Amino acid sequence: MHELSLCRSLIRQAGRVAAEHGALRIRRVCLRIGPLSGVEAALMREAFPLASRHTLAEGARLEMTRCPVRVHCPLCRQEAEASVNDLSCPRCGHWQTRLTGGDELLLVSVDLADAPLPPTG
Amino acid sequence: MCQTCGCALPDHLQHASNEHDVHTVEVLEGLKAHNDEVARHNREHFDRAGLLVVNLMSSPGAGKTRLLEATIEALGARYRLAVIEGDLDTENDARRIRARGVPAVQITTGSACHLDAAMVHRAAHALPLDALDLLFIENVGNLVCPASFDLGQHANVTLLSTPEGDDKPLKYPVMFRASDLVLVTKTDLLPVLDDFDVDAVAAHMHRLASAAPVMALSSKSGPLDAWLEWLEAGLAEQRRPAFHPVPPAEEACLLTRPQGLV
To answer: What is the pLDDT of residues B93-106, one digit of tens each?
Structure first.
């Protein structure tokens, strides 16, 4: 499960953004994930609270937008949606397509707050 | 979890009063930015030293170490080789490599299922890179996680052993899409396996829109020729002198002449 190490790296990145803006808390983290990125959204969701404990992102909400797999066919000169294990052109069947979407693994935005974490417990 | 907005705080009211303080900052940066940066740094080291670095990936037991032993036997006299071994635990694989007179650095990852660029960076510094031709990184046996981490290698080679079945590319598209070469290993077992078709592996790679070559071999009984030629071609390509445009002499002279001497 490499999602935990990715979550740790995500929290470092978000923490850097918070520091640049002098924010005290991270309230929401938005990601874009494609099925060919090799990352499972469900595992990210499980790993995020563990990785964010005792950081500025503790208690933050993790939002993930899933991107479809898309390929461009040089013969049809068109883009189309494809499946993770069949990237051939759904129109003409040509196999030498170019992936145009579906391998994203992107930190899109971070919501920052100036208020510190409220006392818990 | 807060039932109002889905955040991880148990009581939404605790933070609701601060709602107006929140502002969104757009980032648009890859999640692996840090690893990618270290990988780029590794690649600079490798390029400067002029060696070819190959990342070997496969399921556990597909024959990565055995392939390395056979490769050392075939190329050891002509090229200076070294191996970085990644395993969850034990130094067994590094010992097998060292027994053949080739330097090997063992990385034990503990519970981590993959190597990352920082681990490889530390290991690379334990090797005399300038005195090497070929460096193999034997990744942790796993067809999922290693595909997601750039290590600074020049090529990814994925091994697929015949007992595993020929449909692995379709089951692990992320790994096989990242492969520059697929090696079907343990072909000496083909006579007793009735359901493995080497041509099907190539067809499955095409379904992933990959033009990576598929080669079949047995580290035990050969033939290794195609694999060895692929390595030698890769090394030659790596060492092909790159074109660096030189600025015109006069201009260079003007830029470097100390003031007062004009």
So the answer is: 999 999 999 999 99
List binding-site positions of A: 2, 73, 76, 89, 92
Would you say residue B259 has pLDDT above 50? no
B152: containing domain: 33-239
Chain A residues close to B7, C-beta within 8 Å: 27-28, 59-61
A6 and B5: CB-CB below 8 Å? no
The annotation places the binding site of A for Zn(2+) at 73, 76, 89, 92
ipTM given for this complex: 0.86
**Domain containing residue A14: CATH number:** 3.30.2320.80
Number of domains into which chain B is organized: 1
pLDDT < 70 positions in chain A: 1, 116-121
Residues B17-32: what's their mean pLDDT? 81
Pick from A13, A85, A86, A106 the residue to mutate for testing the B interface (most B CBs within 10 Å): A85
Asked if B177 is an interface residue toward chain A (Cβ–Cβ < 8 A), one would say: yes
Domain that holds residue A33: 3-113
Structure confidence at residue B235 (pLDDT): 96
DSSP H or E run through B71: helix B64-75
| CATH assignment of the domain containing B77 | 3.40.50.300
